[in-house]
Amino acid sequence: MVREKSYRFEVISDVHIDLENNGKKIYFVYAEKNFRRALEIAKKRNCDFIVNVGDSVTNATGAKAEWQRYREIINESGYGGMIFEAMGNHETRFVKYGGCTIEEAHREFIDGTRLKEKPVNRIAGKTYYAYTDQTFGDAFLFLSLENGVSTNEIDNFTDEQMDWAEEQLERFYHEGRRVFLIQHAPIVRFGVGDDIMEPAYGGSIRMTSQNGSAFLNNQRFLRLVKQYKDTIWLSGHTHVDLRDEVNYSNENENACHMIHVPSVAGTTRLSRDKNGKRVLDRSFYENASQGYIAEVFEDRAVFTGINIFDDRLYPQYQYIIRK
Ligand SMILES: [Fe+2]
Ligand SMILES: [Fe+2]
After folding, report:
1. Which of 306, 183, 158 is nearest to 255 (CA)?
2. 89 alpha carbon to ligand 2 midpoint, in Å?
3. For position 113, what pLDDT does the model report?
4. What is the number of the ligand closest to the CA of 57?
């Protein structure tokens, strides 16, 4: 029997290497251990590459040492394959505290991820890029929260990035390619990663500011995910656990396939406070570390949830997306 042609990648998000105050006050306590486990799993399961949906660092007091730790863990793990990272909001967090400029944070991301050494299509100095897989010619578009950390308060993409994304998507569809869109932050009350009727997380992308003025590039992003319905959009950011079942949506066929990727560092749980209000439980448990193994065949992509702590697959959280 001929084996069906396929390729495989691991999907992780919100690794959150955390060296706040030089290691004295660590918030994401299991980040390093579970990132190492994720890399070992990718090696053991023969993944062709890893897709990392962003927030690789935590960056309360500068990201340089955290990026260094990120690289050390990769080197120590024995995983020799490629990792493609999207830029999340934490990558630029130090800008908010006046610790560096946005350009410096972008450079740290480019250096920390070794982006220049990867076989990707990119514009010099930019944090968004495209990768084409060698098996089927599938396109992976890595978008970037280019404008900084306060995801819920700003227009998150530059005009230039959205021009680029629109042009790429149009071309890929014209060429008949399958497209994976990797963009860290979900949209409030839309899709995946939160209770969309009663959101627990305040940090998702919005279409307008508090005073009602339009975030035009966020709106362009929303148009793309509504227009190109065959696209598979992978997001992270809320850290919400697979067990809360806000993992997949296509908004009743009004949008593309959206899959939310929980956090490697420690998942959050949709919960309620004593007044019944929706909140996120941010308690950390070492064994609450999750991602996906994606197996891509000619006619379908199969995403199966995985517990990164014990390398166990969750057959109940499997999403099959037909081409
Ligand atoms: Fe995060
Ligand atoms: Fe985030």
Report:
1. 183
2. 5
3. 98
4. 1
